[in-house]
Amino acid sequence: xxxxxxxxxxxxxxxxxxxxxxxxxxxxxxxxxxxxxxxxxxxxxxxxxxxxxxxxxxxxxxxxxxxxxxxxxxxxxxxxxxxxxxxxxxxxxxxxxxxxxxxxxxxxxxxxxxxxxxxxxxxxxxxxxxxxxxxxxxxxxxxxxxxxxxxxxxxxxxxxxxxxxxxxxxxxxxxxxxxxxxxxxxxxxxxxxxxxxxxxxxxxxxxxxxxxxxxxxxxxxxxxxxxxxxxxxxxxxxxxxxxxxxxxxxxxxxxxxxxxxxxxxxxxxxxxxxxxxxxxxxxxxxxxxxxxxx
Length: 294
Description:
alpha/beta; Arc Repressor Mutant, subunit A; D-Maltodextrin-Binding Protein, domain 2; seven-stranded mixed β-sheet; 10 helices; 11 strands; 39% helix; elongated
C-alpha cells in the first residue's frame, strides 16, 4: 500500500509539533527519517503534503484531507488493539443484557453503577424484549443475559437459568374507568366488553405467545410495559399488570386494581444465560444479579 499507518503517525506528529525536527524528537527518530517518509509518500501519491511557512511545516489542503481521514484510521487501529488486549484479559468487548418488559430496570441500576466503578472498558448494551422474544434474543446471540421472562424450554440445550422473583399480576383500570363502578368480582364476560391493552410478543422467529387474552375482546397492542401502563392510566383500556411495576401508581390512586372471579396468578421471573459464556463481565453480572434476587 502507498499509505501506511507509520506514515500517518509521522504526518500527525509533524502537524501537531509544527516542524520535522520537533516531530522527530517526539517520535524518537532522526529528522532525516521523517523527511524521507514524507517525500516518498508525496512521490507515491502524486501531490504535496507539507509546505514551509517560515519555520513551520504546514499541511496543504490535500495534505489536510489526507491526515484528517487518516486520523480516523489511527484511532480505529488503536481501538482494535485495545479490544484485542481486553479480550485477551478475559473481559468482553461488549455485553448485551435483555430485560423482559416485565422486569423493573430500577432493580438493575445499582448493579450497573457498581460495574461502572470497575473501569473494565466493557460496553454495556440494554435491550427490551417481550415474552418469547426474551429467550429468542439469548438463543440467537442478540443477548448474553436475559432478566425476566419465561424459563428456557427443556428442549433448548446449553442454557442456564435461575428464578429471581415472583410477579404478582392484577387486573388494573384507571381510577375513573366505568369498571370501577361495577359490582365485583368481575367475570370474563364482564371484562370482554372493554378494550384490553396487550403487549406484543417481540419474537422474530419463534411462535408468538400471548396471555390473558379473551375471545371477542377488542384489543390495542403496544410494544412495552411502559406503553401499556400509560394507556391504562389514560382510561383507554384495561389490562393485567405486575404489581411491582405499578405499586407507586396504586398508592397514588391513578390506577385501581379490580377483583376478578378467576383468581390471578403469580409468575416466576428468571435470569437466563448460556452455559458456555465464560466472559468475566457476564459472570460478574450473573453472580451479582443472583446475589440480589428478590
